[in-house]
Model the fold of this input.
Amino acid sequence: MFKKLLIAIGAIIAALAVLMIVAGVIVYTKVNKEFVTSQMAKALNRQVTIEKINISIFSVLSGIEVQNVAVSNFKTQGELKTLQGKPVAAGDVFAGMESLVFKVKLMPLLKRQVELKELVLYNPVINLSRNKQGTLNIDDLIKSRKQPVDNEKKEPVKPTSADDLPVAIAVGEIGMKNGTINYYDGEHDQKFQIYKLTMLAHDISIDPKDLEKKDEVKINIGMGIKTVGEMKTGSVKSFDFTINAVGRVIPFDVKTRLLDPEVIIHIAVPDGEITGLEIFNSIAAIPILGDYLGEYISFLKDKQHWKNSKETGLDLHYKADKADITNGKLDLKQAKILFDGTTNIKTKGLDMSVGIVMSKEINEPVQTSLAKRIDSLIKSPDVKKYADSGKLAEASMQPLLNKEGLIDLKTKVKGTTNKPDVQLTQPRLDTLAEVVKSAAGSVAIEAGKGVAKEAVKKVLTEDQQKILEGVGDLFNSSKKK
Done:
C-alpha cells in the first residue's frame, strides 16, 4: 500500500515536472523580444522597444520578466515600418517601464484553466495629454476603431454584462508599483502629476455562473498627486497630497448583471497641502463669521498643510456617479474640519455638512479681537463708561463654544464644487451691532442716575428708548418721595 502511494506521488510529481518543462519550452521558443515587440506594435499602433526579456524553461513557475520597455505615441503603419528596430525617441515616449513581471498559476493548467498569479508593472512612467479639442492621446486605444460610414444607422452600444465573460476570472495580483503619470490638459493649459503610484488589484474573483459569491476586486492604492503650477479653473488653486486607500470594488450589479462598478473604500491622506478650495473660501466669506472671528476664520483662504496625520481621511461609497462620504476629517493646526454628505461626480452637485472645531489656543485671542471690534462700535463716551467691551465679548462668544469649550461651527453646503452655496447652521449669532444695542439697553438703568439719555438713545432701538424713558421716570418719582 505504502509502495503504491509512493508510486502515485512519484507519478504526480513526474507529470507536473513534464508539464512544467513542456510549457516552459513552448514559452521559451515562442516568446522572444522580436515577437513581443511586433505584436505590441501591431496591437497598439505604436512603436515599441524592449531591452531584454528574461525567460527560461522554468518561466512557468518563476514568471516572465520584461525589462526596460518604451512605447511611443500613435504611429501610422508606414511610420512603424520606417521606425522598426530603432529606439523610441525621448520626446515621443507615451509610456515606459523598468520591468513587467508575468506569472500564471501552475495547478489550474492541469485542468486546462489559466489563472493569472501576477501581472505587475514596475516603475512605469505614463505621459497622458489632452489637446484643446478634448482628444486624449489614448483615444485610439479606448475607442472603437471602426469608423462610422455616412448615413449609416448607428447601433446602440450594448452594455457590458457578466454573461459576456467567456470564463471565470481569477487573478492573484495585477497593477503597478512606484509609477508616475504625467497629465497635460491642453484645454486649460494645466499639468498634473501622480507620483510614487502603487495601485494593485488583488484576490480578483469574478464568476458569471456564481455572481452572488464571486464578484469582487480588492484594491490597495498608495500615491502622491499634485498640480504642476496653479490651476486656472476649477474649485481649487493648487494641491499636493499623499493618499493611501484600501477597499474593494464590486464590478457587476448582481440584479441586472450589468457592469456597474460599486466602490467601498477607506482613504487616508496623511500628508498634504491645498490652496484656494472654494468651499473653504465660501465659509471664510460668511460675513457674521468674519465679524466674530476675523483672521481666525480667514485662514481658510490661505494654504492649508498637514503632515503625518493619522486622522485625515474619509470613507467613500461610490456607484452610478454618486459618491457618499462619511467620517471625513481634515486635521489642520488651526482646526479640525469634519465633513460628510454626497456629491455627484457628473454634475458636480453637492449636499454636504461641514463642521469646523477650532483649536482651543485661539479662544483668548479671538475674545480679545472681538472686544476691540465691539469697543469700536460703541461711539458714545458716556455709554462706554457702563458697557464693558471685554465682558460683552466674553458673553458673545458663548454661543460659539461647545461642551468642551471649543469654538464649534456647523455649515450646510449646497450648489456645486465650483460654486458652493454655504450656510451657517450653528450657532445662531446676532450681529455685533445688535450685541452693542442690547448692551446699551442693559445700562439704561444707569442712565436714570445721571447718564445723558440722548447719548444712550443713539445706540438704542425705538422699543429700548421707551424702556429708558420709563426707567428715568421711575427714578425721578422715587426722588420726590
